[in-house]
Design a protein that fits this description.
Elements (H helix, E strand, L loop, with lengths): L11 E5 L2 E4 H23 L6 H24 L1 H5 L16 H19 L3 H26 L9 H6 L6 H6 L1 E2 L2 E2 L3 H22 L5 H18 L15 H22 L16
Helix pairs in contact: 1-5, 2-4, 5-8, 5-9, 8-9, 9-10
Amino acid sequence: MQFNNIQPYDRVFLELGPVPIYWYGVIIATGAALGLWLATREAKRLGLKEDIFVDLLIFAIPAAILFARIYYVIFEWDRYAGAPWWKVFAVWEGGIAIHGALIGSVLTAWLFAKVKGISFWMLADIAAPSLLLGQAIGRWGNFMNQEAHGGPVTEEAYNHFIQYIPDFITNQMIIDGVMYQPTFLYESVWNILGLILLLYLRKVNPRRGELFFSYLIWYSFGRFFIEGLRTDSLYLMGTDIRVAQLISVLLIAVSVVLMYFRRKKGYANVHYNGQLPSKK
């Protein structure tokens, strides 16, 4: 389907002299700030220091960016092999991956918890809703950049579904006269639903660690199907396997196995709020 005379939103939020501030960065920062607010409130309620997540983010944010870039470059190596060496570090040109950021953040949180003498699983559980909130908001940075979209919208898809999406969204998904699937929107909505689920599970008071595993399972399940619609997927070298789909399957399997293993071995010996499980 062809659409003409549609102007996309300006990617620049503000210009400070010669330095442009992009909407992408503003939106990502907003998601991170709201996620921090949510985690800080919960940490205080559970008796942790109010600034514990501020301290953690000082280390986690650089690690997340570094691992997100390394992850992307590894699976796009052909693109960088013959390019100038500095291109590997040119994050401003695009090219980071959420799974890489997740790996970097989790490793940093594990080390941080060891140094501080705090339960890693307690930190992970508190952070889980914040991760989904940040990801839900952050996807709108992709919206402003006209990226992370799916394939072209067919007439059938438009008539049955896409036409009911607000125009300001579908218009931004029109690139060179062609409308593309707003997969960023699908993932954002999926993450918001997951946030609601995790906030409910928090009240149910599951075993420690299982809120974080629920986050991994929920996000990975949705990402698997949404990834299949995207046109910018990273692929396992020399194959047609989308890396994000493979990682999603592995994360679901590992989460289920670890939940069972931790219960079986008695490692999940306290609930989310620190109470001991009932012996009934």
